[in-house]
Amino acid sequence: MTDAAISIQGLGKTYAGGKRALDGVTFDVPRGQIFGLLGPNGAGKSTLINILAGLVNRTEGTASIWGFDIAEHPRNAKASIGIVNQEILFDPFFTPIETLEIQAGLYGVPKAERRSMELLQAVHLADKANAYARTLSGGMKRRLMVAKAMVHSPPVLVLDEPTAGVDIQLRQQLWDYVRELNAGGVTVVLTTHYLEEAEELCDRIAIINHGRLITNEPTRALVGRAQEKVVAVTVDRDVAAPPANACFQKIVLKGERTLEITYAKDKVNAGEVLAAIQAAGLGIVDVSTKEADLEDVFLSLTRGEG
Question: What pLDDT, on the 0 to 100 scale, is given for residue 49?
């Protein structure tokens, strides 16, 4: 048994017409983690997820889920994963409880072992169990899709843009449930365009661009790669023009007394920046800093790749 929940080796996909969607992608998703899979639109994320789901055939390479190769053991591989797609897909004329019961039947879950009401309670839809699915709001439909993906208790859950179009309160409820699932041993793979969401939730993040893997690191290490730092300094008098210094990458006057300074934290520290301000004859009244975040790293990596 491998320690990886998902293992991908040299995975490639070329569509008819020559479009290269994936190009030799290799990475493992460690068991028990919340793993972020990020990339710009058209980067290849959905193709990769559809290969894992058995909806798209790979051109080359291998992929396994919970130790089961998707080509050699497709039934076991599919039983080991639940996928929540970007698109909301279910029959609008079934109720939520019927939707989950039918899905459980498709996976061969015996009636005595089905957890349909338990899952609806977990995603805050128990009071809608017998309402037609078409009457649910967009956020409720997304939560129903998460419950639908969990009917066969898979050890791996893939969430493809699960909070698109969901309001802040419902998004928080969804993430609370995902954290509960993860704490119970479910490995979660997340794609999202909300980078602050990935930074808060994910233990590790892989970034794909133009079908190639460009990084795969623990989230904190990835955020730490951003070398630019910004400090806002309020001084004790009006400034007509910002002072120049070799330790500043950029300095901008914001208002009459606030200087916004960008510097490279791998070459200069904040003390040197403040000393340079004082050396210009200005007294420091207040200082605030902006730490680099995942968005900064994401943009620098994907622009550099492009």
Answer: 94
Cα–Cα distance, 75 to 176 (Å, whole number) = 30
Q: Which regions in the chain score pLDDT beneath 50?
A: 1, 306
Residues spanned by the domain of 235: 228-305
- Side-chain half-sphere exposure of 207, counting CA atoms within 13 A: 26
CB-based contact 219:293 (threshold 8 Å): no
Separation between Cα atoms, residue 108 and residue 71, nearest integer Å = 21
Determine if residue 9 is left, alpha or beta; phi over 0 gives left, psi from -120 to 50 gives alpha, anything else beta. beta
Structure token pair of residue 11:
């995975």
3-state secondary structure 230-245: EEEEEECCCCCCCCCC
Q: What percent of the chain has pLDDT over 70?
A: 96
Note the pTM of the prediction, 2 decimals: 0.78
The last residue of one of the domains, among 166, 189, 223, is 223
| C-alpha 280, offset from chain centre | 44
Q: Which residues of 166-181 are buried (b: 16+ CB within 10 A; e: fewer)?
A: beeebbeebbebbeeb
Tally the domains of the chain: 2
The pLDDT value given to residue 306:
43
Domain boundary (195, 223, 251) is at: 223
Cβ(69)–Cβ(114) below 8 Å: no
What does the pLDDT look like over 76-123, one tens digit per residue? 999 999 999 877 777 888 999 999 999 999 999 999 999 999 999 988
Same-domain status, 64 and 13? yes
* 131 & 234 share domain: no
H or E stretch covering 254: strand 250-254
Distance of CA 80 to the CA centre of its chain: 20
How many CB atoms are closer than 10 A to CB 255?
10
Distance between CA atoms of residues 229 and 70, nearest Å: 44
CB atoms within 10 A of CB 271: 8
Say how far apart CA 58 and CA 205 lie, in whole Å: 23
User: Tokens representing 130?
Assistant: 């017998």
